[in-house]
Amino acid sequence: MYQATFDSRGSHIRWTEVPGAEPARVFLHGLGSMSAVYHAHIAARPELMGRRSLFVDLPGHGTSDRPEDFGYTLRDHADAVAVALDAAGTAGAELIAHSMGGAVAIVLAHRRPDLVSRLVLTEANLDACPPSTAASSNIAAYDEEEFVEKEYARVLAAVGPLWAATMRLADPRALHRSAVGLRRGSDPVMRTLLETLPVGRVFLQGGLSGELPGRESLEAAGVRVVTVPGAGHNVMFDNPDAFAAAVAGTD
């Protein structure tokens, strides 16, 4: 395991990695998740082996530290990931990012273009104020203390055992602030940033999730949108063959 200090109080962002050729692939997880849990089985597939792979846990999640005075905005998360990638000595990496991690990856690519050569986004959050049915909206609907003291346990019980297995490792305060930051979005908003980024961009949409809003505009801006059959939000679990092919660029 590797670590780098991302704030003035000595808090660490941590990652594990598989050695291999550059450019590296950097995997980022969604809200309440962990990178290795969601992506290690993909990086180990034969068509993806041989490349350096980093599995980064965002602040407040997984193995990374969870400072109480950290903001956990999209920009905060992106800057922390940039610290990790600088410490790892990787530049021009391919970012494979899921859900909230996709929003973080977009902000990172905007703020530190030297670190990113390609984005593979899985059902990434592109807009502020997601639908009320989104998990981030449900969490952000409470004020911080109410969520930490009362609602965190209720949310854990409601999300089901698979997501709860990693969400229970996330700090409740970090989880809430991350959800609030995701709901607020970036400035300019993530969709606008994605349409203007000068790197290769792939967006994976689960076929069971419905049509991607604004697909035509994204495609007109050069984003390759792939609808993955038989998959919901967690494409890497629901259709790993299609997911691996998109990461490898062979789909």
TrEMBL record:
SUPFAM superfamilies: alpha/beta-Hydrolases. InterPro entries: AB_hydrolase_1 (IPR000073), AB_hydrolase_fold (IPR029058), Carboxylesterase_BioH (IPR050228). Gene3D superfamilies: alpha/beta hydrolase. Residues 26-169 form the AB hydrolase-1 domain. It holds the Pfam family Abhydrolase_1. It comes from the Bacteria. Coiled coil: none annotated. One of its GO terms (molecular function) is catalytic activity. PANTHER family: HYDROLASE ALPHA/BETA FOLD FAMILY (PTHR43194), PIMELOYL-[ACYL-CARRIER PROTEIN] METHYL ESTER ESTERASE (PTHR43194:SF5). This is Pimeloyl-ACP methyl ester carboxylesterase. It comes from Streptomyces echinatus.
